[in-house]
Amino acid sequence: MKKRALTSNPLEPVKKTAWRIKSEITRARVLQAAKLALAVGIAWTIAPYLPGVADNYPYYAPLGAIVSMYPTLMGSMKNALQTLGSLVVAIVLAGAVIIFSSPSVLTMSLAVGAGALIAATGWFGANREYIPVTVLFVLIIGGPDADSYSIGYLEQVSLGIVVGLLVNVLIFPALSQNAVDQQLANFRRVLSDHLAEISEALADSWPPERDGWATAKDTLVSVSGEVREAVLLADESRKANPRARRYRRDLRADYEDLAALENVTFHVRDITDVLTGAVWGTPIKVELRPELRPTLSQALAAVSTVLSEWGSAEKREDPLAAATDALASLTAELDARKDTATATAMGASAAISMDIARILAALSSRVEQSEQP
Fold first, then answer.
1. Where is this chain primarily localised (predicted)?
2. How many other C-beta atoms lie within 10 A of the C-beta of residue 350?
């Protein structure tokens, strides 16, 4: 079997992919920052021209532009509506103080407390803190002109929100779909390299000299989280986005691929735990029969190949069929030796065999789907 050049860090072979992902994220952030700066400038320029009392409070227009600029259009609209809702609630609370009483330490405290309770419901998302703050603004800054201050505040923030939404939708609205392919490919490679390193550890001297495979299992969880975040962001970015009609993508397939890889991650971590138990006795001490290590190594290497060649156009053979055959060989050897060894001695190998079977079950439909024209 040809060995793959691996290091103790399973992420090392995918640094280029990770760099491309970070570069794309950086470009998106730079574009978003430029759009925000433009929206703030436009809002500040237009703000003095609003009729009525609003021109006395032009500095609130840039605030509206800021709160309406989210990475996705749906996020921008949701945040804008939550901001306006929180301002309206705060103005109503402050108005109740002015109408039914007069601003004092007691009435302001009660109004702010009521605003904090409403904010705690979570109805207004990240903008919930605007409620108690705006109550104070209206009662303290507005003072005797609280009514005109409230109207001007609300109008200017609304102007800024409109400007921000227009800038966001007219200038390259974010469509975060390209990163999904790279993130999923990165996930597959990390899993593949992790399994390949375990395979080589089983094939080398025992106990293995390298222990990177044992300590890197937590990295799989962090990578899984990054991929799920990328898929969710791509899903949200296409909602209400005019560019989504031109750049269509089957995100349902991405969710299914992600679910399959998360399932694989669970079983790969289980395999890692079993082998660390065989080598160091943690987290549970188990026994691994030395004569079974070569067959286990071949089966894990075959599964690694399935992951690494998933979606590849250059395949010399069917990696899924080869992995299935390798699993069959492992199962046959386990059956052949079950009468010559105790259940405890066969437990580790049987557990790994079951994990491999479940990994192939999770991958088979997705790999076959990706190979269809």
1. membrane
2. 16
**C-beta of residue 287 within 8 angstroms of C-beta of residue 331:** no
CATH of the domain at 183: 1.20.58
Distance CA 63, CA 128 (A): 15
Say what the pLDDT of residue 365 is: 86
pTM of the model: 0.76
pLDDT tens digit sequence for 313-337? 666 578 999 999 999 999 998 888 7
Instruction: At 227, list the tokens.
Output: 């991929």
One domain for residues 318 and 181: yes
Residue 5 lies in a domain: no
Length of the chain: 373
Select from 138, 170, 202 the last residue of a domain. 170
The CA angle 323-204-339, to the nearest 5 degrees, is 65
Q: Which pLDDT band, with edges at 50, 70 and 90, does 7 fall under?
A: very low
| Planar angle of CA 293, 315, 247, nearest 5 degrees | 120
Total domains in the fold of the chain: 2
Q: Which residue range is the domain that position 140 belongs to?
A: 32-170
* In 238-342, alpha helices (H): 251-280, 293-308, 319-337
CA–CA separation, 71 vs 355, rounded Å?
A: 39
User: Considering only CA atoms, which of 124, 115, 111 is closest in space to residue 83?
Assistant: 124
> To the nearest 10°, the Cα dihedral for 364, 366, 371, 373?
140
Q: Which amino acid is at 65?
A: A
The first and second tokens of residue 30, run together, are 């730079």
- The Cα–Cα gap between 62 and 164 comes to 9
Percent of the chain residues topping a pLDDT of 90: 45
